[in-house]
């Protein structure tokens, strides 16, 4: 019985350690102010990166590369 209890405590400890490493997966109500500020900064950075990538894709679609025609012999 004691071995089973120790195993349960170890699993509980590992679960809590995992939660602290992946704090962003917790419900937002459980985050402290520092975590909320870090999450906000990360989301703002992501928003900026997505907007920049979308702009690059838009520019590429507006100016598609022109096909390069090689010197080929035409048979008539």
Can you walk through the features of this model?
With 76 residues, the chain is an all-alpha fold. It has a domain of 30 residues. Helix content is 66%, strand content 0%. The chain is built from 2 helices and no strands. The mean pLDDT is 82.
Helix content: 55-70%
Strand element count: 0
Class inferred from helices and paired strands? mainly alpha
Distance between the termini: 92 Å
The description of the largest β-sheet is: none
What is the H-and-E element order?
HH
Instruction: Give the number of helices.
Output: 2
Low-pLDDT windows of residues:
none
Portion in beta strands: under 5%
Q: What's the average pLDDT?
A: 82
Large-scale geometry = elongated
Q: What is Rg?
A: 27 Å
Question: What would the keywords be for this entry?
Answer:
76 residues; mainly alpha; 2 helices; 66% helix; elongated
What are the SSEs and their pairings?
Elements lengths: L1 H20 L11 H30 L14
GO molecular function, one term: endopeptidase inhibitor activity
